[in-house]
Amino acid sequence: MNAHRLLWRAARMVAARAETDAARTLVLKIPGWPGHLPGQHVDVRLTAADGYSTQRSYSVASAADGDLVELTVQNVPGGEVSPYLAEVLEVGDEVEVRGPVGGWFVWRPTGADPVLLVAGGSGIVPLMAMIRARRQAGSRTPFRLVHSVRDPGQRFYAEELRRHDPGDAGLDVAHLYTRAVPDGWPRPAGRLTVADLNTHGWPAEFAPDCYVCGPTGFVETAADILLALGHDPRRIRTERFGPTGG
Fold it and tell me: Considering the entire predicted model, what is its pTM?
């Protein structure tokens, strides 16, 4: 691990925007930030006036952009860190950030093989960093994103993924809903299935790089489906998070 990954830095929030009713994106300015790869995460530390401190890890949502870093945080009820970041932190406030962390669950814009991104809920955050890095680099690598959420109101980055930026040519997006669907939606509400990844993913013979992120149960199901469809296990990279600890 490089020395900069162990260094806590002051990060000042310069902007914020809502993603869902329970999640928002924080734009942090971090002087001396060494840069990051899409898929990496950071540790965020909060320290109270009495000296008590606690920290949590959050995936970076943005492509590399100098000393600006975006984190999308979903409020976990009863959590120690996420409620503060999602609801209390204001523009001008500071937190401590350490990173970037991680080297396995990353995509490099020099890659040419097709990419399949499979996300459950807020698991889309590091995958969105990959989409944005692809756009930033002008990459023509074909991407497919399958994002499963409870209902349409839980979609992260909905406007950005809907507007078809010219730099997103070659990016296909499929949304799945587990609890409620929009009127006239062709797929009934339900969990991720073999048919979903068979329809919206890449054929195994295309040898895509697969990135799966979300709650543990979702990730295990998605990885098992990809294996059953014949995908090379060496090309399936997973990142999971538990239901608590926010």
Answer: 0.95
Q: How far apart, in whole angstroms, are the C-alpha atoms of residue 40 and residue 108? A: 11
| DSSP letters for the chain | --GGGG-EEEEEEEEEEEEETTEEEEEEE-TT-----TT-EEEEEEE-TTS-EEEEEEEB-S--BTTEEEEEEE--TT-SSHHIIIII--TT-EEEEEEEE-SSS---TT--S-EEEEEEGGGHHHHHHHHHHHHHHT----EEEEEEESSGGG-TTHHHHHS--GGGTTEEEEEEESS---TT-SSPS----HHHHHHHS--GGG--EEEEEEEHHHHHHHHHHHHHTT--GGGEEEEEE-SS--
Domain 3-101 architecture: Beta Barrel (2.40)
196, 178 Cβ separation under 8 angstroms: no
**Interatomic CA distance for residues 172 and 186, integer angstroms:** 17
Whole-number pLDDT of residue 159: 94
Half-sphere exposure at residue 171, Cβ-oriented, CA atoms within 13 angstroms: 23
Write down the CATH number for the domain with range 115-241. 3.40.50.80
Q: Which residues of 180-202 are buried (b: 16+ CB within 10 A; e: fewer)?
A: ebeeeeeeeeeebeeebbeebbb
Report domain extents, the chain.
3-101, 115-241
Residues, the chain, total?
246
The first and second tokens of residue 189, run together, are 């509400």
In sequence order, the 6+-apart residues with CB closer than 8 A to the CB of 224 are none
Which residues does the chain have with pLDDT short of 50?
Answer: 1-5, 244-245
